[in-house]
Design brief:
The chain is α+β, with helices and mostly antiparallel strands and 548 residues long. Helices cover 36% and strands 19% of the residues. Among the domains are: 169-285, Uridine Diphospho-n-acetylenolpyruvylglucosamine Reductase, domain 3; 291-402, FAD-linked oxidase, cap domain/gating helix (Vanillyl-alcohol Oxidase, Chain A, domain 3), CATH 3.40.462. Helix 17 packs antiparallel against helix 18.
């Protein structure tokens, strides 16, 4: 198996040698964005070099480093400057701002690469004895501050436990349709292990190339195809988690009635209770054929109605992604290249025709499913009394072609002084449209208060019988105080989410970014998590400052 951390950007997303140029979507990309953001010029914001970042010496003594190397071998303990910088932060917008500016408040003192549960247990024993914080680290792709180097005042330093070398598949049980993996395995390596035998895990988040099985479980993650395969909590059969108290092993039996489901305490625990070392997960046969279909609806309410009908009659498409009017309009503008002349005229004509036919605020839905699922869409009259235009498969295949490339765009925008961030939630159908409108209203209030224009758009990413997940993208010019600016925006949108009955997160997790809101959202929930943390990790060494 390949190691996943080699040749990754230290201050941005993905492979070090890969970019997504601003003109790739449209040669007039910046010009269009300038119009949308109502700003003629942006203040360039180039990144500092990692060699120019000031970093203190490790707080570990030579004797402590020597002992760690007895646990995990000389070559698997690193205290070099580059590794300590890379592992100090994840990949949220605040993380990138800090990395690019070189202003980072804490660095890990060492990065340790275990290859077994025994080594993980030894590292935790060492950390407990020497009062060190321990940060579990998979692909480092957290966008909510989930792997940030934080320690408590009483702690003497920080160890990062990088799981990338625990990356093997241990077994496929074809009779039971399960597979067992070490949890440092990356998304591509999971599929490389399963596909030759005709199977898939079916978990494809946008971070797929760089995130790990352990990270998906720890953050209760979701992927593009979670509509049919389920989220992380649905794919887990059993797992082993190394805690300060010992190894917690859940049972590999279906639907046991043996008290609370410990799997569901481990999933979403974000490294605060222990380090998930191995997991047995459900696998699925590779589909011989899946279809791609896109539809245009006249307005957002109609699109939501179609999505709700699909799930409530039992049709579970692999993916059903509904863009709101703002996202539909944005991608329509950006994807209509003006290379051959006259293209913009055609676009304006198309809009006029759509308007005449009642498509005053059109929205696009991209779907992926088996042929039989589309048969049932027709059979159950999902589009009964619904106005729509079939767009074929090209919008879906185009979207798939760039789905893993778009995160690279954020780095390019930061270089020219533009921030791009995302946030997500889930909510009941009865509150969904009010929640979306409430977030747009909250951002408008921030605009008035700060005199800065924000470009906001969203899509429904996952649909369920009772509700759906909403995923927002926000783009705005960076101010001279970018972290303070981000904090104002983040608080406004999160307050709106809670006000309208949404979850703090559907699949990104809590991390540091949502922790203050988790405390205020439900005192009893937070008290329960604290009590569990104190029992399993009394000294608080595991991923402090996140979730609990």
């Amino acid at each position: 198996m390949k190691y996943i951390s080699s040749a990754k950007k230290w201050n941005g997303w993905g492979h070090a040698d890969k970019r997504f140029p601003l003109n790739k979507l449209n040669p007039d990309f910046l010009k269009i964005l300038s119009t949308l953001l109502e700003k003629k010029e942006f203040q360039a914001s180039p990144s500092t070099g990692w060699k120019d970042i000031s970093i203190p010496d490790t707080r570990l003594s030579p004797a402590q480093i020597k002992y760690l190397r007895k646990i995990s071998a000389v070559s698997r303990v690193s205290t070099n400057k580059f590794d300590r910088i890379v592992h100090s932060r994840g990949r949220s917008l605040p993380d990138l701002i800090c990395l690019r500016s070189g202003v980072i408040d804490e660095f890990p003192d060492a990065i340790v690469y275990p290859v077994s549960r025994t080594e993980i247990a030894g590292i935790l024993d060492f950390a407990q004895k020497h009062k060190m914080a321990v940060i579990p680290y998979g692909g480092g792709s957290s966008v909510v501050g989930g792997v940030n180097s934080i320690k408590l005042k009483k702690q003497n330093g920080i160890l990062v436990v990088n799981m990338e070398r625990m990356n093997r598949m241990q077994e496929i049980d074809e009779t039971s349709m399960t597979a067992t993996f070490e949890c440092g395995i990356s998304g591509p390596d999971v599929e490389l292990a399963l596909n030759p035998s005709g199977y898939t895990l079916g978990h494809f988040p946008q971070s797929f190339e760089f995130s790990t099985l352990g990270g998906w479980l720890a953050a209760r993650g979701a992927g593009y195809f979670s509509g049919v395969y389920g989220k992380a909590e649905n794919m887990l059969v059993c797992c082993s988690m190394v805690t300060v108290q010992g190894i917690l092993q859940t049972r590999d039996v279906p639907a046991p009635s043996e008290g609370p489901d410990l799997n569901q305490l481990i999933v979403g625990s974000e490294g605060t209770l222990g380090i998930i070392a191995e997991a047995t997960v459900k696998i699925h046969r590779l589909e011989k054929k899946i279809n791609h279909k896109a539809w245009l609806f006249p307005d957002y309410h109609t699109g939501i109605l179609v999505l709700r009908r699909l799930r409530q009659v039992g049709i579970r498409l692999h993916m059903a992604r509904l863009s709101d009017p703002e996202e539909t309009r944005y991608f329509s503008q950006m994807n209509n290249k003006n290379e051959q002349g006259g293209r913009n005229t055609v676009l304006r004509l198309q809009k006029k025709i759509l308007f005449l036919f009642g498509y005053k605020s059109p929205v696009v839905m991209l779907t992926v499913g088996e042929p039989g699922q589309y048969y049932w869409i027709k059979k159950k009259n999902i589009f009964n009394k619904i106005k729509y235009i079939s767009l074929g498969e090209k919008p879906v295949t185009d979207w798939f072609a760039s789905r893993y490339e778009l995160p690279y765009l954020r780095d390019e925008l930061l270089n020219v002084g533009i921030a791009a961030d995302t946030f997500e939630t889930s909510v009941l159908w009865s509150r969904l449209e009010k929640l979306r409108d409430g977030i747009y209203s909250a951002v408008q209030k921030v605009e008035k208060k700060t005199a800065i224009k924000y470009l906001l758009m969203s899509h429904v990413s996952h649909a369920y019988e009772t509700g759906a997940a909403l995923y927002f993208t926000i783009i705005y010019p960076l101010s001279t105080e970018p972290l303070e600016q981000w904090g104002i925006m983040k608080k406004a949108v999160t307050d709106a989410i809670l006000k309208h009955g949404g979850a703090l997160s559907h699949h990104h997790g809590i991390g540091t970014d949502h922790l203050p809101m988790l405390k205020q959202e439900n005192d009893v929930t937070y008290f329960f998590l604290q009590s569990l943390k104190k029992d399993l990790d009394p000294e608080g060494i595991l991923n402090p400052g996140k979730l609990v």
